[in-house]
Amino acid sequence: MDHTNFPEAQTIEQLRQNIATIQARIDQACADAGRDPQEVRLLPVSKTHPAEYLRLAYAAGCRMLGENKVQEAHQKWQELEDLTDLKWSVIGHLQTNKAKYVARFASEFHALDSLRLAQALDQRLTIEDRYLDVLVQINTSGEESKYGINPEQAPELIAQLGEFSRLRVRGLMTLAMNSADREAVRGCFIQLRELRDSLQAIAPAGMQLTELSMGMSGDFELAIAEGATIVRIGQAIFGAREQPDSYYWPK
Description:
The protein is an alpha/beta fold and 251 residues long. The chain is built from 9 helices and 8 strands. It has a 6-stranded parallel sheet. Strands 1-8 form a two-stranded parallel ribbon. The two termini are 19 Å apart.
């Protein structure tokens, strides 16, 4: 992807316009797929941008922001605590020893990938007396550079997650293959949707796997066509990042 296609938004109006443009594309993708636009939530991803800049995003209408690195997100949460209705979604890989940060402030977490991490989160959420919406991250591309469990591991983990009262398991998340081959990318999204459907049939009582978090700035329309309910959009709203993707998803 040519990141120069995404100039940095520097004003509230530019951010508002970028959000409106993406929302219009979401609406059109839904129309093309015969879906209700209300079924798809736009999650603006604000990683690398400082807290003061994110006040502009708040003024432009953002009420939930996605972050990859939990300590970066935790710092921003502290700096923006006066914005009491601003919520945070942690979408990047989480080490078990950092579960305490997510438990303290996040409203949702998109990258649950082990029983051990689920245990750590549940314990910390109990201490904080909080609950957390979580999505299980699936590696649909088979790329070693991406986190997430293999699809065949999902049934066992989903069954085990029913034990944790503080975790509200809402669905699945994936990062599609980094490829110019649109059909290969689409295949990742199809695989996640089909896996979700099969898991719902065997999920513990009361667990509703309604969410599919898939699709980013370069491929979200394909994701919507295949059933995405959350699209994670960063650069198309805020502008190109200085750091390469490998900074956020290291090998």
